[in-house]
Design a protein that fits this description.
Layout (H helix, E strand, L loop, with lengths): L11 H4 L4 E7 L8 E7 L6 E10 L2 H8 L15 E9 L11 E4 L39 E2 L5 E2 L11 E5 L3 E3 L6 H4 L5 H12 L7 E5 L3 H12 L4 E5 L4 H8 L4 E3 L8 H8 L6 E4 L4 H9 L7 E4 L21 E4 L7 H13 L9 E6 L3 H9 L5 E5 L1
Parallel strand pairs: 10-11, 10-13, 11-12, 13-14, 14-15, 16-17
Antiparallel strand pairs: 1-2, 2-6, 3-4, 3-8, 3-17, 4-5, 5-9, 6-7
Helix pairs in contact: 4-5
EC number: 1.1.1.1
Family: Belongs to the zinc-containing alcohol dehydrogenase family. Class-III subfamily.
Subunit structure: Homodimer.
């Protein structure tokens, strides 16, 4: 990874305290192509930060939200996006941990630092700035910081809204990183890589010599593999119906691959046969209840742990009989890989810079920002892991 110093500039001395007109990709309705157009971005208010976004990418959560799958109540027009990196353009009253010119990563699972959850070492949840797909305005005053050129509100998304050249975030949802870190790669830490690596490190606590099965080899699943590889797992099994994912999987440490379409037995039976009864850890990264059950049954009785990472928009409940939990298997959900954004992301960025984690395999495409709809299509067709958009 290139760890040389990267110099970027902002126009902060001319724009601080003023409304900025910039380009953004606006979602006007579910499933409609995003429209690149001029929007107005208001100055940050108390405990807020306005950031110049330099790089952003598209996650399956953006895709699902764009389709209208994950939200019971939808606010439009809206600016989506939550994986990005940029530079602080200005800060609002009370912000002390960031200043103009700082290199930053936004993150959707905020950390206020003062609530009972933030003070606990047992969770990365935050009572005030936790992720909420229904939230579409700022916490400070219940208003938006985006508007159309004629003054109508444009709503926020996942505490971040990074599909814009400038965005305003609560300071609890953005963290300063080393200026020597390459921002184009650090954008991956906003969601996908942190979610997957953290699931392996923080949630499962994968041990050296252990066995792992990963269901779904998108960016999150491959990040789980990378995390398990770094932790010294001896067997990392990748499960996916798209064989093109297998080549990429080898680069992040996956040792064996299973395509369910090629089997005449359930996946968990195949895994049990090749692991002497099941893996130590399984990770469900698809958001499908049938896949979740296979992941659960693929773990070893007595101690197997299944970590749930996929987003499940269906109202259907878990496909488990309560008595199955008496066999020693456990299942747990994970959000943002258990990372506390402000406290832990700077250290994760350092680990990427020193080569502990390899981010190069995750960026499969790069496009200018105005080609964002093409980037969405690449993800829909399963051709990309992350398409980096240059703003």
């Amino acid at each position: 990874m290139d760890v040389g110093y990267h110099s970027y500039e902002t126009e902060s001395t001319h724009t601080a305290g003023k409304v900025i007109t910039c380009r953004a990709a606006v979602a006007w309705g579910p499933g409609q192509p995003l429209v690149i157009e001029d929007v107005q971005v208001a100055p940050p208010q108390k405990m807020e930060v306005r950031v110049k976004i330099l790089f952003t990418s598209i996650c399956h959560t953006d895709l699902s939200s764009w389709k209208g799958e994950n939200e019971a109540q939808r606010a439009y027009p809206r600016i989506l996006g939550h994986e990005a990196a940029g530079i602080v353009e200005s800060v609002g009253e009370g912000v002390e941990d960031m200043k103009i010119g700082d290199h930053v990563i936004p993150f959707f699972q905020g950390e206020c630092g003062t609530c009972i959850c933030c003070r606990s070492q047992k969770t990365n949840l935050c009572q005030k700035f936790g992720v909420n797909p229904l939230k579409s305005v700022m916490v400070n005053d219940g208003k938006t910081r985006f508007s159309t050129m004629d003054g109508n509100p444009i709503f926020h998304f996942l505490n971040t809204s990074t599909f814009s050249q400038y965005t305003v975030l609560d300071s609890a949802c953005v963290v300063k990183i080393d200026t020597k870190a390459p921002l184009e790669k650090m954008s991956l830490l906003s969601c996908g890589v942190s979610t997957g690596v953290g699931a392996a490190w923080n949630v499962a606590n994968v041990q050296p010599g252990s066995s792992v099965a990963i269901f779904g080899l998108g960016a999150v699943g491959l990040a789980v593999a990378e995390g398990a590889r770094v932790r010294g797992a001896s067997k990392i099994i990748g499960v996916d119906i798209n064989p093109s994912k297998f080549f990429k999987g080898k680069a992040v440490g996956i040792t064996e691959f299973i395509n369910p379409k090629d089997l005449d037995v359930p996946v968990h039976e195949k895994i049990g046969a090749i692991t002497e009864g099941g893996v130590d850890y399984s990770f469900e990264c698809v958001g499908n209840l049938e896949v979740l059950r296979e992941a659960f049954l693929s773990t070893h009785t007595g101690w197997g742990l299944t970590v749930l990472l996929g987003i499940h928009p269906s109202p259907m409940l878990l496909p488990l009989h309560p008595m199955e939990l008496f066999n020693g298997r456990q299942i747990v959900g994970s959000i943002f890989g258990g990372f506390k954004g402000k406290t832990q992301l700077p250290k994760l960025a350092e680990q990427c810079m020193c080569g502990t984690l390899n981010l190069d395999e995750f960026i499969t495409h790069e496009l200018p920002f105005h080609n964002i709809n093409e980037a969405f299509q690449l993800l829909i067709e399963g051709k990309s892991l992350r398409c980096l958009l240059h703003l």
